[in-house]
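Thread: Newbie trying to understand structure tokens

Hi all, I'm a second-year student working on a class project, and my supervisor (Dr. K.) asked me to get a predicted structure for one chain before our next meeting. I've only ever worked with sequences, so writing a 3D structure as a token string is new to me. If someone could post the tokens and maybe explain what I'm looking at, I'd be very grateful. Here's the chain:
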Amino acid sequence: MAVQAESQWNPPNKRFFGHPLGLMPLFTTEAFERFSYYSMRAILLYYLVDTLANGGLALDDAIGQSLAQIYSASVFLLSVLGGWFADRVWGPRRATLYGGLVIIAGHIALAIPIPTMSYLGIILVALGTGLLKPNISAMVGNLYRDHDPKREAGFSIFYMGINIGSFISSFIVAAARNWGGYHAGFSVAAFGMAIALLFYIQGRKYLNPAVDDVPNPLTSAERKRMWIFAGGLLGALAVVLVLVHLITGKGWLVNAIDSLTLLALAAPICYFVVMFRSKKVDAAERSRLSAFIPLFVAAMLFWMIFEQAASSMAAFAKDNTHLSVGGLAINPEWYQSINPLFIVALSPLFAALWGRVGNRVPTAIKFTIGLGLAALSFIWLGAWAAVYAGGRSPWWVLALTYVIQTLGELCLSPVGLAATTLLAPRAFKSQAMALWFLASASGQAITAQVLQRTGDLSHTTVFVGTGVVALVFTLILACLSPWIGRHINAGMEEPVA
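---
Reply by user tm_fold:
Sure, no problem. This is what the structure looks like when written as tokens:
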């Protein structure tokens, strides 16, 4: 049904930079949603570990960093469910709308100075973002016919909105925090999401009607089973948390982090087992799927390092970096704007580079370069942390760390989803995005455990140790590149890697 609606739909004559006018509300919605998300993320760790007198929750530094990391992992984990609900229950437009409303509720809860409301807010923002994140991108794709030459440029404009929103967020939320405390910062995030929804609702008439379709709707019997299963699952999780608490004696927060870690690690394993065992997957597809496993691990390790921007690197910015540039005082949140700034500046150059070299640089080598840069960024940061042990390093040490990681992201991320889509078996193509999200979720879940258990170790030990592990796998991946290329090309008419 969705396909039919898409093929018959003719976009309005009005254009947005030469593209369907529906791109405008999606661009602005995503820009303000990302502003909202990154505003909250920029101050979350500081709020978790700051003293009660300063308006924080006074968590232990290691637990605070671990919680900030597992929150981010949960967003990617819940994005898998968000895509499923759009496909089976609500359709992408309503899933995005409901996700935005839940995000606003979460930020409002965080803006209320009551600790219980803060934890509720974190859960709601993760749930809402999981609903919105995969589906707004799907709606951008629905604006174009399958072979429209403007499709790729449309996504480039859309991703520009993401980076604009994330770039300005840390500056505004830092100003709000300085003026009115953490809860003022969370209020700014709620306001940003409210603006996003206004643009989204106002622009509904410019979207492809197919976004209201449910591609594979549940039957009445399946809906009943879904709610029974969901209730049973929540009940089982509650029982597990209570039992683990009684057995281990750990606090509920640590148990929640540990449980989410196990879930984030189990999910991709189950995905791979199901795909390998499926009768719908032929020998050539299994060969390509085998080649994807080391790429998945590489992506997992990359995001394990890269996503520490809001946890260990945010802590390093606040406690171990000189917060002044040329005599101008800066806020630690500002460091998180470096990545989107350089993404905007360098994306056209990398797009031209990959377009020029084509398949002469294999997919595995692009992954190798990306992971290698991430590994070197942490070794670089750890080395300088040793030089300035007990003091504060110059501002440019951490700034260059972000730049190196951004270069790695531009090598690995653009080809990552493409490789996932290419190598996923035909029967599982629609779930390729979910599999790619799980690489980030599992990598960050591992980071949450590392941070939780290394609170007494120095920055040098943690950063260099993590970097060395990633660097060792980088070398393994480089050696495996010819084998990966052969398996990727198994059964294909033309070599692609």
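A couple of things are worth pointing out once you decode it. The beta strands are 15-16, 19-20, 324-325, 328-329. The chain has two domains: 14-215, 282-490. Feel free to ask follow-ups in this thread.
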